[in-house]
From TrEMBL:
Organism: Cuscuta australis
Annotated Gene3D superfamilies: LURP1-related (2.40.160.200)
Coiled-coil stretches: none
UniProt superkingdom: Eukaryota
InterPro entries tied to this protein: LOR, LOR_sf, Tubby-like_C
Family: Belongs to the LOR family.
Name the record gives this protein: Protein LURP-one-related 15
Taxonomic lineage from the root: Eukaryota, Viridiplantae, Streptophyta, Embryophyta, Tracheophyta
Amino acid sequence: MMTAVRHPPPTPPPEPVAEPVVVISQNYVAPYMIDLNVKRKMLSSLMESTISVNDINGDQWFEVIRGQMWKIHERRLLLDVADNPLLTFQHKLLTTRRRWVAYRGDSIDPKDVLFTVRQSSLIQVTASSRTKLAVFMAGNMEDGVCDFYVKASDSETSCDIFIGETKTMIAQMHRSQSFFSGYLGKDNFTMSIRPNVDYAFIVSLVVILEEINAERKFQELVMKSVMLK
């Protein structure tokens, strides 16, 4: 007679955050957990790529585009399923820390700034270390307390996103392959977003983290190649 297998009880769904987190639109806030799959696809050259964001059924929800037309100004565009621009990310050059500014729609007008993302430590600019990003909403001065922060693991295979400088986690990201597979167009990762959190906003933060890590890795490779000469 076979002994019945006793399975552990199911993990209860995460509690919604106390106050809804809405940055891009209330349309992207759900009362339940959201799981998304993210895939980067390289196009005709290593300077061009798109990022596709799908649900667990494979249906596309968002797309992030970048290409040679954006190269000079280091911009990325977040599109919804109907190809409407939700957000434009612009890399601010000539700053002591890596810094990105997010604008509403396809604008780069200062009045349309939604939030700014920057590294929280100068050491991270050149050293390979755990990346921590501070996120400031448009009405918050960058020398104050951040509104959100992103903390990546040492291996850069995962990251956690928190409200302000609290321990209230609102989302997680896990990479399914190594960082360098991204250059081959095989970079895949998953995101889990808590109920009542703007998942389009979380997508934008993870994309910015990816861009910052990619830039740092490229600079490290260049430095190593120079040292070997």
